[in-house]
Design brief:
The protein is an alpha+beta fold. It has two domains: 10-91, Jelly Rolls; 95-139, no CATH class. Helix content is 34%, strand content 23%. The chain is built from four helices and eight strands. β4 (37-41) and β5 form a beta hairpin. α2 (85-91) crosses α3 (93-121).
């Protein structure tokens, strides 16, 4: 992805500066060149991104929704920025393929994690929704999924 994004302008972030903010408008895509980024959902850190070539903002672009997490630098970071995310995705099938592979890998991780939770804890209190989530992931056939759950049907992003 770094080679495919080499033509994009470079952005430098200091620790604490945000790439995107939860609830902010999507549209652009960033490619991490160097540094470390923290992904937060509300006040909960859900991931750390340090792999050169990692993408930020692609889910918002693909789904046409606002950002669902805040991504901020936790050390000096360099990124490439495509203000026209949809245009970047449409510009080269290799880019689209890399995005699809990255999303598939993340989905595989989440599905494996949920399956492991169910195997370890069964239907223990607080985890009864794991079976339902796995079932819905299995049945999802396109971009019709809406955010939320039975516990929180109308989440605020």
């Amino acid at each position: 992805m770094l080679d495919l994004a080499a033509h994009l302008p470079e952005v430098h972030l200091a620790p604490g500066e945000a790439v995107v903010r939860e609830g902010g408008a999507g549209g652009g895509i960033w490619v991490l060149i160097s540094g470390v980024l923290r992904v937060r959902k509300g006040d909960v850190t859900v991931n750390t991104i340090s792999h050169p070539g990692a993408l930020i903002g692609e889910m918002s672009v693909l789904l046409g929704v606002d950002h669902t997490a805040t991504v901020e630098a936790i050390e000096p970071s360099r990124l490439r920025y495509a203000a026209d995310g949809p245009g970047l995705l449409a510009s080269d099938p290799a880019i689209t393929n890399l995005v699809a592979m990255g999303l598939a890998e993340r989905l595989r991780f989440v599905t494996t994690y949920l399956s492991d939770l169910r195997h370890q804890y069964g239907d223990a209190p607080g985890l009864t929704m794991v079976s339902e989530v796995l079932s819905k992931l299995e049945q999802a056939s396109g971009p019709v999924a809406k955010p939320g759950s039975a516990r929180d049907p109308d989440p605020i992003y």
